[in-house]
Fold DUF8009 domain-containing protein.
Amino acid sequence: MPTERDPTAIRSLAVTVEDLVTAMELNQSTPRRAVLRVTPPFSGRMRARLHVATAAGDDNETLYIEPSALVGPDAPAYPNAVDTEQELRDDPTETYTVDRHHERHVDAVADWRRAVADAIRERATIHTPAPHEVEVAPLGDLSEHEPPESNENIV
């Protein structure tokens, strides 16, 4: 029988859609590593929260979940600035400007965020340290906000 320190006690994992999508976006657009953190004591229903992982200071009982584990394989790849630039340059109805490129990239990221939110799995396998299947309970919707700072330069 699982104990309160045993993450296999988790049957259902609640996570806000915003936290999940933001974690995936941070992992794609910055050098930071974002995970979803679940802290003991563990029980049947747990909440996972956005956490930017650090090399030191994290205890070994906390469960860290890769955000991509909660998203289906049909989720699109994160758009990069080079691709959105090329799409704009290939569009015969538009003239390339840095401002138009920026707008197009922001729109592409917003579309990606919505697609990822739609691709959240109903069930997912997490590592607890062994693989363990849980129900995924998405909470809320995406908020309209600026994307995290990116290292990609649009020029």
